[in-house]
């Protein structure tokens, strides 16, 4: 699943059962305390940008966050394609405890959302298109529900060779310690509000992460939602059907 939202228009996402869990499990409100007093991290990223001034778009950049156990390299090909087609500056980022980003003991969606907001501040980005897959989709949904005014739109891949040998780029310990309940379910937080922008959720027809029976629950938090299903695609819809995914993405970006 992936998610896209616009503060002034519409949004997309790829993980419906997450929102359903958030709606039906208010006990997860305790997660709001996990983000208090935390220091944001500077996320590692790869940037794709046109060199010819006539090809550079003045539209907001696209920022893409991968799923759990992934990295920014998962989106290298699609990041290039989006930049080539639209002329927009594209950033693919590594979430904390993933890829080349710093490792920390804390790991939950409020922190991932605030890391994204810190990234925008670091790069002086006042408006952006945020796109995330799976865990990344939940993170950008969290940004939307925080009602940050700078966000215009959201569109809801690990070994490192060192002198000591091959090591995980992932912070496996932090991910394991925080998986339940901070990552396995989507939290309901006191600071979250309903996202009133137009929202679109995209899922693979063969995936059980975005299910038609979850649509009503999703609309509790995203009342102006639309849902799109790509045929013969699973959870990794952007990898299973990249051409169909990009075609849909571009139509929603216009």
Automatic annotation (TrEMBL):
InterPro entries: AB_hydrolase_1 (IPR000073), AB_hydrolase_fold (IPR029058). Signal peptide: none annotated. The keyword Hydrolase applies. It is an enzyme of class 3 (hydrolase). It catalyses: 1,2-didecanoylglycerol + H2O = decanoylglycerol + decanoate + H(+); 1-octadecanoyl-2-(9Z-octadecenoyl)-sn-glycerol + H2O = 2-(9Z-octadecenoyl)-glycerol + octadecanoate + H(+); 1-octadecanoyl-2-(5Z,8Z,11Z,14Z-eicosatetraenoyl)-sn-glycerol + H2O = 2-(5Z,8Z,11Z,14Z-eicosatetraenoyl)-glycerol + octadecanoate + H(+); a 1,2-diacyl-sn-glycerol + H2O = a 2-acylglycerol + a fatty acid + H(+). One of its GO terms (cellular component) is mitochondrion. It comes from the Eukaryota. Keywords: Hydrolase. Residues 60-186 form the AB hydrolase-1 domain. Gene3D superfamilies: alpha/beta hydrolase. One of its GO terms (molecular function) is carboxylic ester hydrolase activity. Its EC number is 3.1.1.116. Pfam families: Abhydrolase_1 (PF00561). Belongs to the AB hydrolase superfamily. This is sn-1-specific diacylglycerol lipase ABHD11. It comes from Cherax quadricarinatus.
């Amino acid at each position: 699943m992936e998610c896209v939202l616009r503060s002034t228009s519409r949004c997309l996402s790829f993980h419906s059962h997450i929102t359903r869990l958030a709606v039906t499990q208010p006990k997860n409100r305790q997660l709001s305390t996990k983000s208090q007093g935390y220091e944001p991290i500077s996320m590692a990223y790869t940037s794709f940008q046109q060199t010819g001034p006539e090809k550079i778009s003045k539209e907001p950049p696209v920022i893409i966050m991968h799923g759990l156990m992934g990295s920014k390299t998962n989106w290298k090909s699609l990041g290039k394609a989006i930049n080539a087609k639209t002329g927009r500056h594209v950033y693919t980022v590594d979430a904390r405890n993933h890829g080349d980003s710093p490792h920390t003991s804390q790991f939950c969606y409020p922190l991932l959302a605030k890391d994204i907001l810190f990234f925008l501040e670091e790069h002086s980005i006042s408006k952006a298109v945020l796109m995330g897959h799976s865990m990344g989709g939940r993170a950008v949904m969290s940004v939307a529900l925080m009602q940050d005014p700078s966000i215009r739109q959201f569109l809801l891949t690990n070994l490192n060779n060192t002198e000591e040998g091959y090591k995980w780029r992932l912070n496996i310990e932090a991910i394991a310690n925080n998986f339940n309940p901070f990552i396995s379910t989507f939290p309901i937080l006191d600071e979250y509000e309903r996202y009133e922008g137009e929202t679109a959720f995209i899922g693979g027809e063969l995936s059980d992460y975005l299910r038609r029976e979850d649509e009503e629950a999703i609309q509790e938090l995203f009342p102006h939602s639309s849902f799109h299903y790509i045929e013969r695609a699973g959870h990794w819809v952007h990898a299973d059907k990249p051409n169909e995914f990009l075609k849909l993405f571009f139509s929603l970006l216009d």
